[in-house]
Amino acid sequence: QIFNQHNAEAPNLEQAFHRMAQMEPNLDHDVSWFLLPSYWAKMVVALISFLCFANSYDGDFVFDDSEAIINNKDLRAETPLGDLWYHDFWGSKLSSNTSHKSYRPLTVLTFRINYLFAGGFYPVGFHVINIILHCTISVLMVDVFSILLGGLQFSNKGRRLNLAPKSSLLAALLFAVHPVHTECVAGIVGRADLLCALFFLLSFLGYCKAFRDNKEGYTFSVFWVLVSVILGAIAMLCKEQGITILGLNAVFDALVINKINVLELIRKLLYKDKSLENAGLLRKGLLFRVTLLMCGGASILYIRWRIMGTGPPAFTEVDNPASFADSLFVRAINYNYYYSLNAWLLLCPWWLCFDWSMGCIPLIKSVSDWRIIALAALWFCLIGLICQALCSEDSHKRRILTLGLGFLIIPFLPASNLFFRVGFVIAERVIYLPSIGYCILFTYGFSLLSKQAKKKKILAVAVLGILLINALRCALRSSQWRSEEQLFRSALSVCPLNAKVHYNVGKNLADKGNQSAAIKYYREAVRLNPKYVHAMNNLGNILKERNELHEAEELLSLAVQIQPDFAAAWMNLGIVQNSLRRFEEAEQSYWTAIKHRKKYPDCYYNLGRLYADLNRHIDALNAWRNATVLKPEHSLAWNNMIILLDNTGNLAQAEAVGREALELIPNDHSLMFSLANVLGKSQKYKESEALFLKAIKANPNAASYHGNLAVLYHRWGNLDLAKKHYEVSLKLDPMAPGTKENYNLLRRKLEQLQKKGG
């Protein structure tokens, strides 16, 4: 606990502290920008960040949202909360070899809370939380930038002084309106980056709170250092990048708290200078605090490693082609090219794409490739900045440049491929935290230009123009993230060589029923990437539905040849072979699919259909029973069991299966219809009638429902009601098989009854 002495002269002392602080080198002296009180500055930043992304609030679930949210069982109430700690971001067990190993349980927990409060998968609530998080982070950035740009100083009351109000406002606005953040804010799965950033910043601010400025130098609170470590751990439980804040806190401590000159320290270490203890390492508790940070970080990483259980995830070549290159030179040169592209996205965020893999960025394979220029430009700038950060005689300049480079580079390291292979080429979401460093460097560059410029207002107008353009780009990009169609089509102009972009456009068209257009995009995806098995599978499916069976078989056979464990392609190949009446091959394909995916209810369902076609009724029933065991809500499998038992005269067993199915899926009208048919044949007319009426209420336009209810009334002797439902059925479907004949029989019977009555 830290105590401060107070006396009657405290207000004067506080003013003196502020005046002394302002006498030090300060960015705000040179920056021609708006000066607002802290409260108003934060209000402006919050409002502008909200306006940039507000139009994404009613967007759909798009791209990865389907897997991370809609298909993620961890969001549902029936999944125990404890399972979140043993599952990855996508709901798979971390111990599984197929797991993505993205361990973000706190992010998934927020999705689950969203789902429970909304009462289902309604995207508005998810989007609103993302927008609020970005606004909150942007507001916190005002305080963070005031420390990074102005330094950490306190009044005698322990109140932190904002020594760079204009610079911190500019940097926070740059952060708030940066278009590269759109994926994190408008894409719901970007919640991981937003939550990570929130606790990342809180950890930094907590670390700053551990210090107080007094006459004896910096004192510190162990409590707040430990709080900072805990907040860093929470950030990592939201996304892996969060752990990097512990390293940045150590860098901040060395540069700002201890005012270490890195170049001087390196010289003393090299020459084993005996005055090393005077460099500030021991004098102000730096080693103790760094030890706490290192121990905390090591403990967090160890626990995560134990929970993860197995090795790193297995990515494919299409996810990250450079990491699969045989040549170390090719890997290194392409990694550096990726870094330069990330830097360009920060500088000029105009060409944005939801996915940069699958040929979007062809590999550099020789030094004659003109893209080498980008690498040279990147390292020229970085080396220049590093030299200035180390060698400048201006301590203020050294501190800002080093912090800017630190916040730019250190949070990016987990995505750099240096320590482990990542599953992407470029991902805009991973630049969310590194953009803090970019904003620091941009603001510092603006201050240098302002210092030299004679017409500072023109320079300020130019920066305002950049902010306005970025804000408009954010709004435009947010609107593209509102639906998959807009998102996928927007990528065609940015990455025309990306097979996944064409695949996703095709999939979106196929989902909307536009098969002809979908085929065109699937074919292009396969042309761009001849080993793209998912595109082959989907194209084969469409061709199968269009009865182009031979080409479908060729595509699906090629898909399983390329990827022998592709269970879905094996099942679809079996369906095609079944349609071609090559039953033995179809059966073998189905069993191969089940071999590669043990729990595959749809495959058991299709296997049952094959056995039914071959009159192997017992095998068909067993296959469908397996489908319902694996997926109790598999309505088609239940229906087929009821119909097969009905057709083979096993009415009692059909009735039992029907009742069992309706207990599990009580609102399925097709099951009601099938069971009603069985009950009618068993002369349980009243119960059959009730089920028919319930099915018709759920689906009033089904001609067969009215037709079969008419048959029930016909048998039961309720001829007027039978006539009514025959007529409704014929009105809905004049060609309904058997209905017209039954109706004519009923009319003749009614005419005979009228004659007898007359």
From TrEMBL:
<feature type="repeat" description="TPR">
    <location>
        <begin position="601"/>
        <end position="634"/>
    </location>
</feature>
<feature type="transmembrane region" description="Helical">
    <location>
        <begin position="403"/>
        <end position="424"/>
    </location>
</feature>
<feature type="repeat" description="TPR">
    <location>
        <begin position="703"/>
        <end position="736"/>
    </location>
</feature>
<keyword id="KW-0808">Transferase</keyword>
<keyword id="KW-0812">Transmembrane</keyword>
<feature type="transmembrane region" description="Helical">
    <location>
        <begin position="286"/>
        <end position="305"/>
    </location>
</feature>
<dbReference type="Pfam" id="PF13414">
    <property type="entry name" value="TPR_11"/>
</dbReference>
<comment type="similarity">
    <text>Belongs to the TMTC family.</text>
</comment>
<feature type="transmembrane region" description="Helical">
    <location>
        <begin position="217"/>
        <end position="237"/>
    </location>
</feature>
<dbReference type="InterPro" id="IPR019734">
    <property type="entry name" value="TPR_rpt"/>
</dbReference>
<feature type="transmembrane region" description="Helical">
    <location>
        <begin position="186"/>
        <end position="205"/>
    </location>
</feature>
<keyword id="KW-0472">Membrane</keyword>
<keyword id="KW-0256">Endoplasmic reticulum</keyword>
<feature type="transmembrane region" description="Helical">
    <location>
        <begin position="372"/>
        <end position="391"/>
    </location>
</feature>
<protein>
    <recommendedName>
        <fullName>dolichyl-phosphate-mannose--protein mannosyltransferase</fullName>
        <ecNumber>2.4.1.109</ecNumber>
    </recommendedName>
</protein>
<dbReference type="GO" id="GO:0030968">
    <property type="term" value="P:endoplasmic reticulum unfolded protein response"/>
</dbReference>
<keyword id="KW-0677">Repeat</keyword>
<feature type="repeat" description="TPR">
    <location>
        <begin position="499"/>
        <end position="532"/>
    </location>
</feature>
<feature type="domain" description="DUF1736">
    <location>
        <begin position="311"/>
        <end position="383"/>
    </location>
</feature>
<dbReference type="InterPro" id="IPR011990">
    <property type="entry name" value="TPR-like_helical_dom_sf"/>
</dbReference>
<feature type="repeat" description="TPR">
    <location>
        <begin position="533"/>
        <end position="566"/>
    </location>
</feature>
<feature type="transmembrane region" description="Helical">
    <location>
        <begin position="458"/>
        <end position="476"/>
    </location>
</feature>
<keyword id="KW-1133">Transmembrane helix</keyword>
<feature type="transmembrane region" description="Helical">
    <location>
        <begin position="430"/>
        <end position="449"/>
    </location>
</feature>
<dbReference type="GO" id="GO:0005783">
    <property type="term" value="C:endoplasmic reticulum"/>
</dbReference>
<dbReference type="Pfam" id="PF08409">
    <property type="entry name" value="TMTC_DUF1736"/>
</dbReference>
<keyword id="KW-0802">TPR repeat</keyword>
<feature type="transmembrane region" description="Helical">
    <location>
        <begin position="243"/>
        <end position="266"/>
    </location>
</feature>
<dbReference type="Pfam" id="PF13432">
    <property type="entry name" value="TPR_16"/>
</dbReference>
<dbReference type="GO" id="GO:0016020">
    <property type="term" value="C:membrane"/>
</dbReference>
<comment type="pathway">
    <text>Protein modification; protein glycosylation.</text>
</comment>
<dbReference type="GO" id="GO:0004169">
    <property type="term" value="F:dolichyl-phosphate-mannose-protein mannosyltransferase activity"/>
</dbReference>
<dbReference type="InterPro" id="IPR013618">
    <property type="entry name" value="TMTC_DUF1736"/>
</dbReference>
<dbReference type="InterPro" id="IPR052346">
    <property type="entry name" value="O-mannosyl-transferase_TMTC"/>
</dbReference>
<feature type="transmembrane region" description="Helical">
    <location>
        <begin position="33"/>
        <end position="54"/>
    </location>
</feature>
<feature type="transmembrane region" description="Helical">
    <location>
        <begin position="131"/>
        <end position="151"/>
    </location>
</feature>
